[in-house]
Amino acid sequence: MPIWISLRQFFIIAAACLAVPSHLFADPIRVRATTEAIEIAMPGEASKAGGDVAVVALPLAGGGAPAQVYNGSPASVIRFARVQGGRDLVFARFQVGDAEPQFVSEFGEAGRAADSRIGAGGKKGLRCVHDLADAEALGVRHLARNVRLGDLVDWRAMGEGEFGQVVDGERIAMRPGAVRALDGFCREAEARGMSVTAVFYNGR
Question: Is 179 helix (H, G, I), strand (E, B) or coil?
């Protein structure tokens, strides 16, 4: 299926590819996220190139548009704001020059929740719980619940379902019943003094 992009989108990508000569990207870029910034470690030769360096955040497959998120002098590490235009770039793919686009692969402090919901009520945990009352009676304080993405996302109603969420400009339709069931389970568990860790997976 052909992929159509606007003339403006073409020039954004072209500017990133032409900003630094392609032969300077024999080694891949490395992308790190912190709580406030995205940091891109440039290959040795590319970090010393003349002219400006343009960084483009490429859209995820299926929607969105490329956006230039940085344009400035080359350096061994390029830093720019993680949130731009109301969008968190932590899940974007980044294109610098002719280098292979890369996702964030190093999270540093970004993966640590500043205010964890997991309390210190106990260390006993349980997985695949069917009866919260029984789990509470056993003194369980931490639950793990498997959540299949296919049960939550309504692929047949993409962009049209009554319940959904906009991600990078594309509306993802959700199954209301499945979302309400998961929400009800988490609310009841919290009311019983238990924390829930959802394990999302894509499979049967």
Answer: helix
Contacts of 67 by beta carbon, 8 Å cutoff, 6+ apart: 12, 56, 57, 84, 85
Cβ proximity of 58 and 35 under 8 Å: no
Quote the pLDDT of residue 135: 87
Strands of 24-121, DSSP E: 30-33, 37-41, 53-58, 67-72, 77-81, 83-84, 87-88, 93-96
128 and 163 Cβ atoms separated by less than 8 Å: no
How many degrees, rounded to 5, is the angle at CA 197 between CA 141 and CA 93?
Answer: 160
Cα–Cα distance between 91 and 198 in angstroms, integer? 19
Residue 170's pLDDT is 72
Q: How many residues does the chain have?
A: 204
Chain mean pLDDT for the chain: 75
Reference 18, options 96, 101, 94; nearest CA is 96
Burial of 74 (0-12, 13-18, 19+ CB in 10 A): buried
Average pLDDT over residues 131-137: 89
